[in-house]
Design brief:
Elements (H helix, E strand, L loop, with lengths): L1 H27 L5 E2 L11 H7 L2 H7 L19 E5 L5 E4 L3 E2 L7 E2 L8 E6 L6 E6 L5 E6 L9 E4 L4 E5 L11
Parallel strand pairs: 1-6
Antiparallel strand pairs: 2-3, 2-10, 4-5, 5-9, 6-7, 7-8, 8-9
């Protein structure tokens, strides 16, 4: 009886440890907040100001919710160490450490640099329901997030290269959207 009792305690300990480890992983990469299309973002520019600030491709993706064709973005098969910034607001969004090759034709990350960098918005365009990823300061469209990514989050933040500005490790943050 004592051995059976000891084995039971050991098994319970293993299950408890697994739950604590799973919670720790989730706490390390919490999901960004979900907002609706009516959300007011702190950075507000007129269309004319956005067009002056951004290139034509950046404007199409960030402000008109466009998407670059698969395999055409400069950051798809790009693995230099550094930080990816928003081309709209110049805030840091993703670290190269969270980047992976998804095989989809777009740069993909398993988590944003912090959950406050982006917001998620329900997207029902093209007859499907997805979660769009937007810049948390301006609401500018960056891409979409899917639940088919690698550990530790299981997420795939599928971004448009033209929505991002890459700065190599040790480099200075961008000062202009037109890089």
């Amino acid at each position: 009886m004592k051995i059976a009792h000891l084995v039971s305690i050991m098994i319970l300990g293993l299950f408890a440890g697994s739950c604590i480890n799973a919670q720790t992983k989730n706490n390390k990469y919490p999901d960004p907040p979900v907002v609706d299309k009516k959300t007011v973002f702190p950075m507000k520019l007129t269309d004319a100001e956005w067009k002056q600030r951004l290139t034509a491709n950046q404007y199409y993706i960030l402000r008109e919710e466009g998407t670059e064709r698969a395999g055409t973005g400069k950051y798809d098969h790009f693995y230099q160490k550094g930080t990816y910034y928003s081309a709209a607001t110049l805030q840091p969004l993703f670290s190269s450490e969270a980047k992976f090759n998804s095989g989809t034709g777009w740069p993909s990350f398993y988590a944003p640099i912090n959950p406050d960098a982006v917001r998620l918005v329900r997207d029902e365009s093209f007859g499907e329901v997805r979660m769009a990823v937007v810049d948390s300061k301006s609401g500018s469209h960056l891409g979409h997030v899917f639940d088919d990514g690698p550990a530790p989050t299981g997420k795939r933040y599928c971004m448009n290269s033209d929505a991002l500005i890459f700065v190599p490790e040790g480099g200075k943050p961008p000062t202009s959207s037109k890089q």
